[in-house]
Design goal:
63 residues, mainly alpha, 60% helix, 0% strand
Length: 63
């Protein structure tokens, strides 16, 4: 879990206290993991873009 987890999980729990902390944590992890692939700080971003370009050559050049 990244550094924002300890901030957002209690905040989301306060929004709906009927949800248990494990459900709030799971919802946060699903939402966070879906955006991790597109972050520019990801070390494999260049590799992913290269494979995307290989299989779909009509994509615009990033560099």
């Amino acid at each position: 879990m990244d550094a924002a987890g300890p901030i957002f999980i209690p905040m989301l729990y306060q929004v709906n206290p009927n949800m248990t902390p494990d459900v709030v944590s799971a919802a946060f992890r699903v939402a966070d993991s879906s955006t991790n692939i597109i972050t520019p700080m990801m070390t494999y971003a260049g590799v992913i873009l290269a494979f995307m370009r290989k299989y779909k050559s009509d994509l615009p050049s990033v560099m």
